[in-house]
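Model the whole thing, not chain by chain.
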Amino acid sequence: MIKFDFHNYVDSLIKKEDYDKLMDNKEKVLKQFKSSSMIGWTKRIDNNLVNKIIEVAENIKKNSDCLVVVGIGGSFLGSYAYSNMFKSYFLDDNFEVIFAGTTLSSQYMSELLNYLENKNFTLNVISKSGTTMETTLTYSLIKNLMIDKYSDEEMKKRIILTTDKEKGSLREEVIEKGYESFEIPNDIGGRYSFLTAAHLLPLAMNFNIKRIVEGYYDGGEYLDEAFEYAAIRNSLFKSGKYVENFCVYEENMYYFTEWLKQLFGETEGKNGVGILPMSTVQTRDLHSLGQFIQEGNKIIFETFIKVNKSNRVKCNLGDLHEINNIVLDSVVRAHYSGGVPCNIIELESVNEEDIASLIYFFQLAAAFSGYLMGIEPFDQPGVEVYKKEVREGLNK
Ligand code: PA5
Protein backbone atom coordinates (compact mmCIF):
# COMPACT_ATOMS: atom_id res chain seq x y z
CA MET A 1 0.00 0.00 0.00
CA ILE A 2 1.45 3.33 -1.07
CA LYS A 3 0.22 6.63 0.37
CA PHE A 4 0.40 9.97 -1.36
CA ASP A 5 0.28 13.49 0.05
CA PHE A 6 0.29 16.08 -2.72
CA HIS A 7 -1.51 18.82 -0.82
CA ASN A 8 -0.44 19.50 2.79
CA TYR A 9 2.89 21.03 1.88
CA VAL A 10 2.00 22.33 -1.58
CA ASP A 11 -1.41 24.00 -1.86
CA SER A 12 -0.57 27.40 -0.41
CA LEU A 13 2.24 27.74 -2.98
CA ILE A 14 0.23 27.07 -6.17
CA LYS A 15 -2.64 28.91 -7.84
CA LYS A 16 -5.82 26.96 -7.12
CA GLU A 17 -7.39 28.02 -10.43
CA ASP A 18 -4.40 26.52 -12.33
CA TYR A 19 -4.76 23.25 -10.45
CA ASP A 20 -8.54 23.09 -10.94
CA LYS A 21 -8.18 23.82 -14.65
CA LEU A 22 -5.64 21.02 -15.04
CA MET A 23 -7.80 18.59 -13.07
CA ASP A 24 -10.71 19.49 -15.40
CA ASN A 25 -8.61 18.13 -18.27
CA LYS A 26 -8.53 14.63 -16.81
CA GLU A 27 -11.01 13.04 -19.19
CA LYS A 28 -9.38 14.62 -22.23
CA VAL A 29 -5.89 13.51 -21.16
CA LEU A 30 -7.04 9.96 -20.38
CA LYS A 31 -8.61 9.78 -23.82
CA GLN A 32 -5.38 10.99 -25.45
CA PHE A 33 -3.38 8.51 -23.36
CA LYS A 34 -5.61 5.56 -24.21
CA SER A 35 -5.47 6.31 -27.92
CA SER A 36 -1.64 6.41 -27.96
CA SER A 37 0.13 3.64 -29.84
CA MET A 38 2.91 3.62 -27.23
CA ILE A 39 1.14 2.30 -24.15
CA GLY A 40 1.93 -1.39 -24.58
CA TRP A 41 3.37 -1.20 -21.04
CA THR A 42 -0.18 -0.99 -19.63
CA LYS A 43 -1.15 -4.31 -21.24
CA ARG A 44 -0.70 -7.61 -19.42
CA ILE A 45 2.60 -9.36 -20.23
CA ASP A 46 2.24 -12.90 -21.63
CA ASN A 47 2.80 -15.60 -18.96
CA ASN A 48 4.60 -17.81 -21.48
CA LEU A 49 7.13 -15.05 -21.99
CA VAL A 50 7.65 -14.68 -18.23
CA ASN A 51 8.20 -18.45 -17.97
CA LYS A 52 10.65 -18.41 -20.86
CA ILE A 53 12.64 -15.59 -19.23
CA ILE A 54 12.84 -17.62 -16.01
CA GLU A 55 13.99 -20.69 -17.93
CA VAL A 56 16.71 -18.76 -19.78
CA ALA A 57 17.87 -17.22 -16.47
CA GLU A 58 18.11 -20.70 -14.89
CA ASN A 59 20.26 -21.91 -17.81
CA ILE A 60 22.57 -18.93 -17.46
CA LYS A 61 23.02 -19.76 -13.77
CA LYS A 62 24.02 -23.30 -14.74
CA ASN A 63 26.63 -22.43 -17.36
CA SER A 64 28.00 -19.04 -16.29
CA ASP A 65 29.72 -17.29 -13.38
CA CYS A 66 28.05 -14.03 -14.33
CA LEU A 67 25.72 -12.26 -16.75
CA VAL A 68 27.03 -9.21 -18.58
CA VAL A 69 24.21 -6.84 -19.55
CA VAL A 70 24.99 -4.24 -22.20
CA GLY A 71 22.53 -1.38 -22.71
CA ILE A 72 22.03 2.32 -21.98
CA GLY A 73 19.20 4.74 -21.06
CA GLY A 74 15.83 3.02 -21.00
CA SER A 75 17.52 -0.24 -21.93
CA PHE A 76 19.52 -0.15 -18.70
CA LEU A 77 18.23 2.04 -15.88
CA GLY A 78 15.10 0.10 -14.82
CA SER A 79 16.72 -3.21 -13.92
CA TYR A 80 19.88 -1.49 -12.63
CA ALA A 81 17.93 0.81 -10.30
CA TYR A 82 15.68 -2.00 -9.11
CA SER A 83 18.57 -4.42 -8.39
CA ASN A 84 20.47 -1.77 -6.48
CA MET A 85 17.59 -1.23 -4.08
CA PHE A 86 17.69 -4.81 -2.88
CA LYS A 87 21.42 -5.47 -2.83
CA SER A 88 23.19 -5.93 0.47
CA TYR A 89 25.63 -3.09 1.13
CA PHE A 90 28.42 -5.40 2.24
CA LEU A 91 27.52 -9.06 1.74
CA ASP A 92 26.47 -9.35 -1.85
CA ASP A 93 25.81 -13.05 -2.45
CA ASN A 94 23.56 -12.48 -5.48
CA PHE A 95 24.33 -14.05 -8.84
CA GLU A 96 26.74 -11.58 -10.41
CA VAL A 97 25.17 -9.26 -13.00
CA ILE A 98 27.52 -6.72 -14.57
CA PHE A 99 25.91 -3.74 -16.29
CA ALA A 100 28.14 -2.33 -19.04
CA GLY A 101 27.72 -0.10 -22.07
CA THR A 102 27.07 3.19 -20.29
CA THR A 103 30.56 4.63 -20.58
CA LEU A 104 33.28 5.06 -23.19
CA SER A 105 35.96 5.19 -20.51
CA SER A 106 38.97 3.19 -21.72
CA GLN A 107 40.03 2.50 -18.17
CA TYR A 108 36.65 0.99 -17.35
CA MET A 109 36.58 -1.04 -20.56
CA SER A 110 40.09 -2.47 -20.20
CA GLU A 111 39.36 -3.45 -16.60
CA LEU A 112 36.07 -5.05 -17.64
CA LEU A 113 37.70 -7.06 -20.42
CA ASN A 114 40.51 -8.19 -18.09
CA TYR A 115 37.96 -9.20 -15.49
CA LEU A 116 35.92 -11.20 -17.99
CA GLU A 117 38.93 -13.00 -19.44
CA ASN A 118 38.93 -15.58 -16.68
CA LYS A 119 35.17 -15.82 -16.22
CA ASN A 120 32.59 -18.01 -17.85
CA PHE A 121 29.91 -15.55 -18.76
CA THR A 122 26.73 -14.97 -20.77
CA LEU A 123 26.15 -11.71 -22.62
CA ASN A 124 22.76 -10.02 -22.90
CA VAL A 125 22.80 -7.05 -25.30
CA ILE A 126 19.74 -4.80 -25.01
CA SER A 127 18.92 -2.17 -27.60
CA LYS A 128 15.55 -1.47 -29.13
CA SER A 129 17.03 0.31 -32.15
CA GLY A 130 20.12 -1.88 -32.33
CA THR A 131 22.07 1.19 -33.43
CA THR A 132 23.05 2.92 -30.17
CA MET A 133 26.78 3.53 -30.43
CA GLU A 134 27.74 2.89 -26.78
CA THR A 135 25.88 -0.43 -26.87
CA THR A 136 27.16 -1.69 -30.22
CA LEU A 137 30.73 -0.64 -29.41
CA THR A 138 30.73 -2.42 -26.04
CA TYR A 139 29.09 -5.45 -27.64
CA SER A 140 31.80 -5.68 -30.30
CA LEU A 141 34.61 -5.47 -27.71
CA ILE A 142 33.09 -8.18 -25.53
CA LYS A 143 32.25 -10.31 -28.54
CA ASN A 144 35.89 -10.20 -29.69
CA LEU A 145 36.87 -11.52 -26.31
CA MET A 146 34.26 -14.27 -26.61
CA ILE A 147 35.50 -15.28 -30.06
CA ASP A 148 38.90 -15.94 -28.46
CA LYS A 149 37.35 -17.90 -25.61
CA TYR A 150 34.45 -19.85 -27.07
CA SER A 151 33.54 -21.99 -30.09
CA ASP A 152 30.67 -20.88 -32.39
CA GLU A 153 28.42 -23.47 -30.74
CA GLU A 154 29.28 -22.15 -27.28
CA MET A 155 28.73 -18.53 -28.40
CA LYS A 156 25.22 -19.49 -29.43
CA LYS A 157 24.52 -20.56 -25.86
CA ARG A 158 26.07 -17.41 -24.42
CA ILE A 159 24.73 -14.50 -26.46
CA ILE A 160 21.20 -13.22 -25.94
CA LEU A 161 19.98 -10.22 -27.92
CA THR A 162 16.99 -8.20 -26.71
CA THR A 163 15.81 -5.88 -29.47
CA ASP A 164 13.07 -4.85 -31.89
CA LYS A 165 10.94 -7.66 -33.30
CA GLU A 166 11.93 -7.01 -36.92
CA LYS A 167 14.26 -4.06 -37.39
CA GLY A 168 17.94 -3.35 -36.71
CA SER A 169 21.32 -5.02 -36.84
CA LEU A 170 20.79 -7.06 -33.66
CA ARG A 171 17.65 -8.65 -35.10
CA GLU A 172 19.58 -9.39 -38.32
CA GLU A 173 22.24 -11.10 -36.24
CA VAL A 174 19.64 -13.19 -34.45
CA ILE A 175 18.34 -14.38 -37.81
CA GLU A 176 21.80 -14.98 -39.24
CA LYS A 177 23.50 -16.62 -36.25
CA GLY A 178 20.56 -18.18 -34.44
CA TYR A 179 21.25 -16.43 -31.11
CA GLU A 180 18.65 -16.55 -28.36
CA SER A 181 16.57 -13.37 -28.44
CA PHE A 182 13.79 -11.40 -26.79
CA GLU A 183 11.63 -8.62 -28.19
CA ILE A 184 11.11 -5.06 -27.04
CA PRO A 185 7.57 -4.57 -28.39
CA ASN A 186 6.88 -1.82 -30.93
CA ASP A 187 4.37 -0.16 -28.62
CA ILE A 188 6.81 0.26 -25.70
CA GLY A 189 9.57 2.91 -25.65
CA GLY A 190 12.88 2.50 -23.80
CA ARG A 191 12.10 4.36 -20.56
CA TYR A 192 8.68 2.68 -20.30
CA SER A 193 10.12 -0.80 -20.88
CA PHE A 194 10.57 -1.96 -17.26
CA LEU A 195 8.07 -4.79 -17.70
CA THR A 196 9.67 -6.28 -20.82
CA ALA A 197 12.45 -8.82 -21.26
CA ALA A 198 14.86 -5.86 -21.44
CA HIS A 199 14.65 -5.63 -17.64
CA LEU A 200 13.01 -8.86 -16.59
CA LEU A 201 15.86 -11.09 -17.79
CA PRO A 202 18.59 -9.26 -15.82
CA LEU A 203 16.20 -9.19 -12.85
CA ALA A 204 15.32 -12.88 -13.15
CA MET A 205 18.93 -13.70 -12.20
CA ASN A 206 18.17 -12.71 -8.60
CA PHE A 207 14.46 -11.97 -8.21
CA ASN A 208 11.16 -13.77 -8.42
CA ILE A 209 9.97 -11.88 -11.47
CA LYS A 210 6.41 -13.20 -11.12
CA ARG A 211 6.15 -11.11 -7.94
CA ILE A 212 7.56 -8.11 -9.78
CA VAL A 213 4.95 -8.56 -12.53
CA GLU A 214 2.08 -8.69 -10.00
CA GLY A 215 3.40 -5.70 -8.06
CA TYR A 216 3.80 -3.69 -11.26
CA TYR A 217 0.18 -4.13 -12.35
CA ASP A 218 -1.05 -3.36 -8.82
CA GLY A 219 0.36 0.12 -9.52
CA GLY A 220 -2.66 0.59 -11.84
CA GLU A 221 -4.74 1.13 -8.68
CA TYR A 222 -3.04 4.51 -8.35
CA LEU A 223 -4.18 5.95 -11.68
CA ASP A 224 -6.15 8.76 -9.97
CA GLU A 225 -3.21 9.62 -7.76
CA ALA A 226 -0.89 9.57 -10.78
CA PHE A 227 -3.13 12.12 -12.51
CA GLU A 228 -3.31 14.26 -9.37
CA TYR A 229 0.48 14.23 -9.08
CA ALA A 230 0.76 15.18 -12.77
CA ALA A 231 -1.67 18.09 -12.21
CA ILE A 232 0.22 19.26 -9.11
CA ARG A 233 3.56 19.15 -10.98
CA ASN A 234 2.06 21.18 -13.82
CA SER A 235 0.52 23.77 -11.48
CA LEU A 236 3.89 24.10 -9.78
CA PHE A 237 5.52 24.56 -13.18
CA LYS A 238 3.01 27.32 -13.98
CA SER A 239 3.93 28.99 -10.65
CA GLY A 240 7.61 29.15 -11.70
CA LYS A 241 8.79 25.93 -10.04
CA TYR A 242 10.89 24.59 -12.88
CA VAL A 243 12.94 21.99 -11.01
CA GLU A 244 11.73 18.87 -9.18
CA ASN A 245 14.04 17.41 -6.56
CA PHE A 246 13.40 13.74 -5.83
CA CYS A 247 14.53 13.16 -2.22
CA VAL A 248 15.32 9.73 -0.85
CA TYR A 249 16.51 8.77 2.61
CA GLU A 250 17.86 5.35 1.68
CA GLU A 251 21.28 5.30 -0.03
CA ASN A 252 20.29 2.30 -2.12
CA MET A 253 17.48 4.29 -3.76
CA TYR A 254 19.93 6.61 -5.49
CA TYR A 255 19.69 4.79 -8.81
CA PHE A 256 15.92 4.80 -8.52
CA THR A 257 16.16 8.59 -8.62
CA GLU A 258 18.40 8.24 -11.69
CA TRP A 259 15.63 6.18 -13.30
CA LEU A 260 13.14 8.93 -12.35
CA LYS A 261 15.38 11.59 -13.86
CA GLN A 262 15.48 9.73 -17.15
CA LEU A 263 11.76 8.99 -17.13
CA PHE A 264 10.68 12.59 -16.52
CA GLY A 265 13.61 14.29 -18.28
CA GLU A 266 13.16 12.46 -21.59
CA THR A 267 9.38 12.48 -21.37
CA GLU A 268 8.88 16.20 -20.70
CA GLY A 269 11.97 18.07 -21.84
CA LYS A 270 10.73 19.17 -25.26
CA ASN A 271 9.55 22.25 -27.19
CA GLY A 272 11.22 24.57 -24.67
CA VAL A 273 9.20 23.28 -21.71
CA GLY A 274 9.59 20.61 -19.04
CA ILE A 275 10.43 20.30 -15.37
CA LEU A 276 14.13 19.61 -14.77
CA PRO A 277 14.45 16.56 -12.52
CA MET A 278 17.25 16.38 -9.94
CA SER A 279 17.77 14.25 -6.87
CA THR A 280 19.25 14.35 -3.40
CA VAL A 281 20.16 11.47 -1.12
CA GLN A 282 19.66 12.43 2.50
CA THR A 283 20.95 13.14 4.93
CA ARG A 284 24.19 13.44 2.91
CA ASP A 285 22.92 16.20 0.60
CA LEU A 286 21.40 18.28 3.39
CA HIS A 287 25.01 19.29 3.92
CA SER A 288 25.45 20.33 0.33
CA LEU A 289 22.42 21.22 -1.86
CA GLY A 290 20.25 21.66 1.26
CA GLN A 291 21.43 25.27 1.57
CA PHE A 292 20.37 26.10 -2.01
CA ILE A 293 17.01 24.40 -1.64
CA GLN A 294 16.23 26.18 1.64
CA GLU A 295 17.33 29.69 0.73
CA GLY A 296 18.40 29.83 -2.92
CA ASN A 297 16.51 30.56 -6.15
CA LYS A 298 12.86 29.57 -5.59
CA ILE A 299 12.54 27.45 -8.73
CA ILE A 300 12.51 24.11 -6.91
CA PHE A 301 9.78 21.83 -5.60
CA GLU A 302 10.40 18.46 -4.03
CA THR A 303 9.00 14.94 -4.03
CA PHE A 304 10.03 12.95 -0.97
CA ILE A 305 9.96 9.16 -0.90
CA LYS A 306 9.38 8.14 2.70
CA VAL A 307 9.82 4.55 3.90
CA ASN A 308 7.93 3.60 7.06
CA LYS A 309 9.73 0.45 8.14
CA SER A 310 13.31 -0.74 7.94
CA ASN A 311 15.87 -2.74 9.96
CA ARG A 312 15.84 -2.01 13.69
CA VAL A 313 18.97 -0.32 14.98
CA LYS A 314 18.98 1.19 18.46
CA CYS A 315 21.22 4.19 18.96
CA ASN A 316 21.71 6.83 21.67
CA LEU A 317 18.82 8.91 20.26
CA GLY A 318 16.36 5.98 19.92
CA ASP A 319 15.41 3.88 16.88
CA LEU A 320 17.63 4.86 13.95
CA HIS A 321 14.97 4.50 11.24
CA GLU A 322 12.52 6.59 13.25
CA ILE A 323 15.20 9.24 13.55
CA ASN A 324 15.76 9.13 9.77
CA ASN A 325 12.03 9.79 9.32
CA ILE A 326 11.94 12.51 11.97
CA VAL A 327 14.68 14.23 9.96
CA LEU A 328 12.63 13.76 6.76
CA ASP A 329 9.51 15.30 8.35
CA SER A 330 11.57 18.17 9.79
CA VAL A 331 13.20 18.86 6.41
CA VAL A 332 9.76 18.95 4.75
CA ARG A 333 8.60 21.57 7.28
CA ALA A 334 11.83 23.57 6.97
CA HIS A 335 11.84 23.61 3.15
CA TYR A 336 8.12 24.42 3.03
CA SER A 337 8.72 27.36 5.37
CA GLY A 338 11.39 28.47 2.87
CA GLY A 339 8.82 28.53 0.05
CA VAL A 340 9.60 25.06 -1.34
CA PRO A 341 6.49 22.91 -2.01
CA CYS A 342 6.91 19.28 -0.91
CA ASN A 343 5.03 16.19 -2.14
CA ILE A 344 5.31 13.05 -0.04
CA ILE A 345 5.05 9.46 -1.31
CA GLU A 346 5.01 6.97 1.54
CA LEU A 347 5.98 3.30 1.24
CA GLU A 348 5.38 0.79 4.03
CA SER A 349 8.84 -0.64 3.29
CA VAL A 350 11.24 -1.04 0.36
CA ASN A 351 9.74 -4.30 -0.86
CA GLU A 352 9.77 -5.88 -4.31
CA GLU A 353 6.05 -5.54 -5.06
CA ASP A 354 5.61 -1.94 -3.89
CA ILE A 355 8.66 -0.73 -5.79
CA ALA A 356 7.27 -2.36 -8.95
CA SER A 357 3.90 -0.62 -8.29
CA LEU A 358 5.69 2.67 -7.78
CA ILE A 359 7.42 2.25 -11.15
CA TYR A 360 4.05 1.84 -12.86
CA PHE A 361 2.66 4.82 -10.91
CA PHE A 362 5.53 7.07 -12.02
CA GLN A 363 5.24 5.91 -15.65
CA LEU A 364 1.55 6.84 -15.63
CA ALA A 365 2.30 10.18 -13.95
CA ALA A 366 5.08 11.04 -16.44
CA ALA A 367 2.82 10.29 -19.41
CA PHE A 368 -0.13 12.29 -17.97
CA SER A 369 2.17 15.14 -17.05
CA GLY A 370 3.54 15.25 -20.59
CA TYR A 371 0.04 15.49 -22.06
CA LEU A 372 -0.89 18.25 -19.59
CA MET A 373 2.23 20.10 -20.73
CA GLY A 374 1.10 19.78 -24.33
CA ILE A 375 3.98 17.58 -25.50
CA GLU A 376 4.23 14.04 -26.88
CA PRO A 377 5.42 11.97 -23.88
CA PHE A 378 6.76 8.94 -25.73
CA ASP A 379 9.38 10.26 -28.13
CA GLN A 380 12.87 11.68 -27.53
CA PRO A 381 13.87 13.67 -30.64
CA GLY A 382 16.57 15.52 -28.68
CA VAL A 383 18.46 12.29 -27.97
CA GLU A 384 18.42 11.53 -31.69
CA VAL A 385 20.09 14.91 -32.41
CA TYR A 386 23.16 13.99 -30.38
CA LYS A 387 23.24 10.46 -31.79
CA LYS A 388 23.30 11.91 -35.33
CA GLU A 389 26.11 14.36 -34.45
CA VAL A 390 28.16 11.49 -33.03
CA ARG A 391 27.66 9.42 -36.19
CA GLU A 392 28.79 12.40 -38.31
CA GLY A 393 31.70 13.11 -35.95
CA LEU A 394 32.92 9.53 -36.23
CA ASN A 395 32.70 9.58 -40.02
CA LYS A 396 34.93 12.70 -40.36
O1 PA5 B 1 14.04 5.96 -23.30
C1 PA5 B 1 14.55 5.85 -24.39
O2 PA5 B 1 13.89 5.58 -25.42
C2 PA5 B 1 16.06 6.01 -24.58
O3 PA5 B 1 16.66 6.37 -23.38
C3 PA5 B 1 16.67 4.71 -25.08
O4 PA5 B 1 16.34 3.67 -24.20
C4 PA5 B 1 18.21 4.80 -25.20
O5 PA5 B 1 18.58 5.85 -26.05
C5 PA5 B 1 18.78 3.49 -25.75
O6 PA5 B 1 18.18 3.16 -26.97
P1 PA5 B 1 18.24 1.71 -27.57
O7 PA5 B 1 17.47 0.78 -26.69
O8 PA5 B 1 17.64 1.84 -28.93
O9 PA5 B 1 19.69 1.32 -27.63
